[in-house]
Amino acid sequence: MSYYLGIDLGGTRIKIGLSDDYQLIEIQNVKASREKGFQYNMKIIVEAAVGMCSENEISQYDINSIGFAFPGLVNSKAKKVIATNAKYNDAVGFDWDKWAKENFGAAIYLENDARMACIGEWRHGAGVPYTDLIVITLGTGIGTAVVMDNKLLKGKHFQAGNLGGHFSVNYDGRLCTCGNRGCVEAEASTVVLKQLVSNHPDFSTSKLVNLEEISFNNLFELADHDKVALDVRNQCLDIWSAAVISYIHAFDSEAVILVGGIMNSKDVILPYIEEKVNELAWTPWGKVAILSADLNDSAGVIGALHMAQKI
Ligand SMILES: [Zn+2]
After folding, report:
1. Strands 142-148 and 80-83: what pairing?
2. How far, in Å, is the centroid of ligand 1 from the Cα of 146?
3. ipTM exceeds 0.95
4. From ligand 1's centre to the CA of 185, what distance in Å?
5. Which CATH number belongs to the domain containing residue 205 in this structure?
6. What distance in angstroms lies between residue 72's CA and the mean position of ligand 1's atoms?
7. Same-domain status, 165 and 274
């Protein structure tokens, strides 16, 4: 029997999955400590994965191969992190083969985290019926990955399809961490949500003032009774819709799959974006399917396990 590890490293949590040739055995969540740097979190991952192996009466050296989802630009051929955006900057130059061999005696496949989520949904989730799709991860920031003609899009520099969060929706907009202006991520994401809300002229009268933390989940909850929450929610939905339409025009997608905790509000998000896409996207061939993920926040780890089994 062969065993596989799938690892999805996020800014606040790490997901680790263990499978054999036939089935998923277990997925565990571990807290990430982004502020302590990349090397520290890699040690946490080894400890947690070794613990999972022993709980399942497997030696860590029984692991055949590992799929690893990393939050940054990745050259999957050379197994290198190309660039990060203020997250785990010390991962550039890391020797992934050495790490996998030393700790597990295993081979490793490294990929960008949105691409791994895309592989998860495409092969095992809502994307199964499609050959051309885009997966959008709405987390702290916004990640995207694309399948075109039944192939994962990578491009010459391994960034094709990955920078959907940095499509500009406002040329004169907010400065983004990437250096561009008016990126989707800089205009409508968790990173800027607090600013969006507090800039609203009626903010002082809003119920949001009393909240310790403003998240999209509580923004969506309050929107039915609170003008500021409703305005900011609709502004974000309009920005995401504009971005989705640009992705469809760029990648000729037949399906758009949205991933993330925010999809708790899919009953509002999906019909809103669908209506805008039906009205404004140029798709003479027919209608684009606007879907929420089947695997949701496990899409990345399932994608990583899928790729581990392909090595
Ligand atoms: Zn940007």
Report:
1. unpaired
2. 18
3. yes
4. 6
5. 3.30.420.40
6. 13
7. yes
How many independent structural domains does the chain possess? 2
Residues 157 and 284 in one domain: yes
204: burial class by Cβ within 10 Å (0-12, 13-18, 19+)? exposed
Residue span of the structural domain in which 185 resides: 128-293
Neighbour count for residue 138 (Cβ, 10 Å): 23
Alpha carbon of 147 to ligand 1 centroid (Å):
22
CA–centroid distance, residue 43 to ligand 1 (Å): 30
Consecutive 10-residue averages of pLDDT for the chain (311 residues):
96 95 96 93 97 96 98 96 89 96 98 97 98 94 96 97 97 95 96 94 94 92 96 98 98 97 94 98 98 95 97 86
CA of 10 from ligand 1 middle (Å) equals 19
Judge if 282 and 304 occupy the same domain: no
Task: Name the β-bridge partners of 10.
Answer: none
Whole-angstrom Cα distance, residue 127 to residue 125? Answer: 5
Residue 123 lies in a domain: no
